Every structure is written in structure tokens, then in C-alpha cells.
């Protein structure tokens, strides 16, 4: 298994830990995508446990005001803004704070390369690839929320992790759940992994209604508060398709061994089936601070303010089969995984472009999966589904696929 095999309780990076892996010195932490939903949840936990963390770098794309506020609160060493147009504001807001302000993609990579014990990789989309690779190269722990690293760059990213000796711990709730349910198990006894899906805001909508679904409705996730891009992916269920690809790279399973079940309450996050008939599941309320805390504190656990489950109050947990007719995105993602090579990277790039077009109201809700599938077909006929050997190959395939997707949008 990639994650648990690479994740070690010992300390390869000079972090002080007792023989049981319990940290005794503050953990040096960088948060890439600090102003986003995952970034804010991470820093909420940091604020509640200030003695455990020392914040190194924080980053954002455009939100200079919030980035400066977070940098001051957490006494970050560096704050990086992606958009150069926001740099003057950031510098101004941080003057006299002791935090160094920087801007642009190169500065982001430089900040991500600063030595840390843990990097929360929470930039949304393929924009997170280069900084997360840079963080992986410095060899600390990567708490991975940016699923695009595994979807677009799967094997290339895992090679980078293996080469640097970094630890990879998943943050996505389903993968964190699988990581927990797989702990200490015999990989040969693993039969299948079942990822749960809430079904999103349109779970019960018919096709005709889906064809008219507007972004404001699609952004209303019933259980989770997340960024805009992943909220749309949850509505189309492309998010579950991306998660199948993510699970394929993280765990010792074939893609046929990864199933999806719709579970509207989002309480059971993943189930792991073993050859003796046992099923191990991880449960918790839909609050990302649980999986985030696990990624930060593994192999120990951190106290969080997450609401405790009340099973009696919940009364019942329900499960349904996914409907690939109304939500074809999972099938499209599975086909891309089966094609291999650059296909998942093309899938991700086309999906990012299609989601942006939908949010701009340039295409309809049902067009998202159709356009993604059409981009992959067009890429195949142009001979673009080749093997990717380096981050440069991944970024080139991503860029070319975006152009192709845009031409089809
Ligand atoms: P958000 O949209 O809420 O936040 C994204 C963060 O990335 C912000 O800090 C944003 O800065 C920054 N950012 C956006 N574009 C760029 C760019 N081009 N360059 C540098 N930084 C950029 O996203 P989420 O927190 O929801 O998601 C983050 C990642 O975690 C995604 O990959 C998502 O799939 C994954 N994930 C999220 C979950 C969730 O519950 N939210 C659950 C599981 C996985 P700014 O604020 O300035 O725009």
C-alpha cells in the first residue's frame, strides 16, 4: 500500500518524537491553499492547538486580505499570493508583522520547498501540482487534499514521494477512512474498498430537471461546506470518479475492486471488505476537521471540536446504488483510469474547464460530463493519450487538454 507503507511513525526529518511516534516538539507546518475550505479548517485546528504547530508558509491565490490575517494570527514565516496584482495589498497588510510576503508561481514553489514536518496540500485543481511536488521533494509529510496530484500525475507523483522519502497521508474523507480501516491489515486479505457518496444536491432529481440545474443550486451541497469546484464535482458525481482514481493510486487494489455506494447521510465514509467476510468502516460527522486532524497527527489522534455522532438521533443510515444514467461522470472517470497514461490527466483538465464554463453559465449541468468525455475521445484521436514520465509531461498534457476542452466548449 502506498500510503501506509510510506507513512512511518519514526522520524526521518529530524522532528523530535518519542519512541511511540508521539511528537514532542512543535510540528513545522505549511498550508498551501490556506484561504480555502480545507486551508481554513486546517488553521482552525492549528489555532486550537498552538503549542503543537509552528507555521512556516501560507498561500492563497487572490485573497490577500484573508491571507494577511491568517499569516498574522499564526505568525507565519512566509505568505505567498499567486496573483501578482494582489501583492502590493499583501505587502502593505503584512508590513511590520515579521512575515515575509511573496508572490507568483515561482515564489509559491520556493515557499513550498521550505523545510517542514508537514505540508497541507490544499490548493484546488491542477494549479496545486507544481507546489505539491515541491513540498514532496523536501521530504516531509504531505497531507494530501489536492486530489489532482494523484488523478493527473498518479505514478509520477508517487515516484517523487518514494524518491524523497516523504510520507503521504490522505485528507479526502473517504481515503482517510480507508487509510484508517486498512491500518495493520494483511493486504492479501483485502477484497474491495467501497467509497461512499452523498449523492450531492441533485440525488433525487430526474434528467429533465438536471438539464435546467443552475450553479446556485449545484453549489448547495446537503452535507459538506466545500470550495466551489469540488461542490460542482459532487453535484455531477465527478468527484467520486476522481476519488476512484485517487484510491487506485493510494491502496493496493485494482480499479475493479473499488466500488461506490450512495449514502445520503455522509456518516460512513468508506468500507473495507476483507476475505473473512469482515467489513471495517470509518464513521464520523461530515466535518473535514476529522480527516485533517488525522493527517496532521497520525499515528496519534488529536482532540477536535467536531460534533460527536449520536447514532440514536440519526436513527438510520441508508445506502443506494449510484445511477450512472443521470450521473455518467463516474463511468467517464473509470474509463479514463482504465485507458491509463495521460487519460486521467486529460479527464481532470477537461473537467476543470467544463466546471468553470458551467459556473460562468456558458454550458448546462448535463454538458459537463458530456464535454469531458468528448475531450477524452478527441484527445485519443489526436494521439494525446501517451505515458507521462515527469511533472513537465503532466503539465504539458494538462495545458494541451485545456486548449482542446476549450475548443469543444
Ligand atoms: P477552495 O476553493 O475552498 O480553496 C482553494 C485554495 O486554493 C484557496 O486558498 C485559493 O486561494 C487557492 N487557489 C486557487 N487557485 C489557485 C491558483 N491558481 N494558484 C494558487 N492557489 C490557488 O478549495 P477546497 O478547500 O474546497 O479544496 C482544496 C482541495 O482539496 C481540492 O483539490 C479539493 O478537491 C480537495 N478536497 C476538498 C474537500 C473539502 O471539503 N473542501 C474535501 C476533500 C478534498 P484564494 O482563496 O485566494 O482563491
Description:
The chain is α/β, with parallel strands linked by helices. The protein has a domain at 27-170: Rossmann fold (3-Layer(aba) Sandwich), CATH 3.40.50.720. The chain is 45% helix and 14% strand. It has 18 helices and 11 strands. It has helices at 2-6, 37-48, 64-74, 87-94, 105-112, 129-137, 148-164, 173-182, 207-210, 215-218, 228-236, 238-250, 289-297, 311-314, 329-339, 343-359, 367-381, 391-408; strands at residues 27-32, 53-60, 78-81, 100-103, 118-121, 141-144, 167-170, 190-197, 258-262, 268-274, 279-283. It has a 7-stranded parallel sheet with strand order 4-3-2-1-5-6-7, sandwiched between helices. α12 packs parallel to α15 (329-339). The longest helix has 18 residues, at 391-408. The protein is globular and about 55 Å long. The two termini are 39 Å apart. The model is unreliable at 1-20 (pLDDT under 50). Bound molecules: NADPH dihydro-nicotinamide-adenine-dinucleotide phosphate. NADPH dihydro-nicotinamide-adenine-dinucleotide phosphate binds at residues 33-39, 59-63, 82, 122-124, 127, 145-148, 172, 224, 226-230, 288.
**Structural class label:** alpha/beta
**Outline type:** globular
Main pleated sheet: 7 strands, parallel
N-to-C series of helices and strands: HEHEHEHEHEHEHEHEHHHHEEEHHHHHH
Number of strands: 11
Low-pLDDT ranges: 1-20
State the CATH superfamily name of the domain at 27-170: NAD(P)-binding Rossmann-like Domain
Amino acid at each position: 500500500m502506498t500510503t501506509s507503507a510510506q507513512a512511518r511513525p519514526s522520524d526521518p526529518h529530524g522532528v523530535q518524537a518519542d519512541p511511540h511516534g508521539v511528537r514532542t516538539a512543535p510540528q513545522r507546518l505549511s498550508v498551501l491553499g490556506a484561504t480555502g475550505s480545507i486551508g481554513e479548517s486546517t488553521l482552525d485546528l492549528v489555532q486550537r492547538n498552538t503549542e503543537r504547530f509552528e507555521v512556516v508558509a501560507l498561500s492563497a491565490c487572490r485573497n490577500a486580505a484573508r491571507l494577511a490575517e491568517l499569516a498574522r494570527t499564526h505568525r507565519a514565516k512566509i505568505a505567498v499570493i499567486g496573483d501578482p496584482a494582489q501583492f502590493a495589498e499583501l505587502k502593505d497588510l503584512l508590513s511590520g508583522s515579521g512575515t515575509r510576503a511573496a508572490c507568483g508561481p515561482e515564489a509559491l514553489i520556493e515557499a513550498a520547498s521550505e523545510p517542514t514536518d508537514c505540508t497541507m496540500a490544499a490548493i484546488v485543481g491542477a494549479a496545486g501540482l507544481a507546489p505539491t511536488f515541491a513540498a514532496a521533494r523536501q521530504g516531509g509529510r504531505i497531507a494530501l487534499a489536492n486530489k489532482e496530484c494523484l488523478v493527473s500525475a498518479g505514478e509520477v507523483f508517487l515516484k517523487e514521494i518514494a524518491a524523497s522519502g516523504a510520507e503521504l497521508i490522505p485528507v479526502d474523507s473517504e481515503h482517510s477512512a480507508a487509510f484508517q480501516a486498512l491500518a495493520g491489515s494483511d493486504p492479501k486479505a483485502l477484497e474491495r474498498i467501497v467509497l461512499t457518496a452523498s449523492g450531492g444536491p441533485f440525488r433525487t432529481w430526474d434528467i429533465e430537471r438536471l438539464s435546467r440545474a443552475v450553479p446556485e443550486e449545484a453549489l448547495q451541497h446537503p452535507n459538506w461546506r466545500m470550495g466551489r469546484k469540488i461542490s460542482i464535482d459532487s453535484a455531477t458525481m465527478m468527484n467520486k470518479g476522481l476519488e476512484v482514481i485517487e484510491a487506485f493510486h493510494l491502496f493496493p487494489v485494482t480499479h475493479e475492486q473499488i466500488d461506490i455506494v450512495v449514502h445520503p447521510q455522509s456518516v460512513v465514509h468508506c468500507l473495507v471488505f476483507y476475505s473473512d467476510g469482515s467489513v471495517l468502516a470509518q464513521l464520523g460527522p461530515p466535518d473535514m476537521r476529522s480527516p485533517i486532524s488525522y493527517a496532521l497527527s497520525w499515528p496519534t489522534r488529536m482532540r477536535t471540536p467536531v460534533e460527536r455522532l449520536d447514532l440514536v438521533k440519526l436513527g438510520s443510515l441508508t445506502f443506494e446504488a449510484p445511477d450512472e444514467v443521470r450521473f455518467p461522470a463516474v463511468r467517464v472517470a473509470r474509463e479514463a483510469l482504465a485507458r491509463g497514461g495521460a487519460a486521467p490527466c486529460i479527464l481532470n483538465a477537461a473537467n476543470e474547464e467544463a466546471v468553470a464554463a458551467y459556473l460562468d453559465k456558458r454550458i448546462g449541468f448535463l454538458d459537463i460530463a458530456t464535454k469531458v468525455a468528448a475531450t477524452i475521445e478527441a484527445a485519443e484521436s489526436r494521439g494525446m493519450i501517451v505515458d507521462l514520465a515527469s511533472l513537465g509531461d503532466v503539465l504539458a498534457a494538462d495545458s494541451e487538454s485545456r486548449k482542446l476542452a476549450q475548443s469543444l466548449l
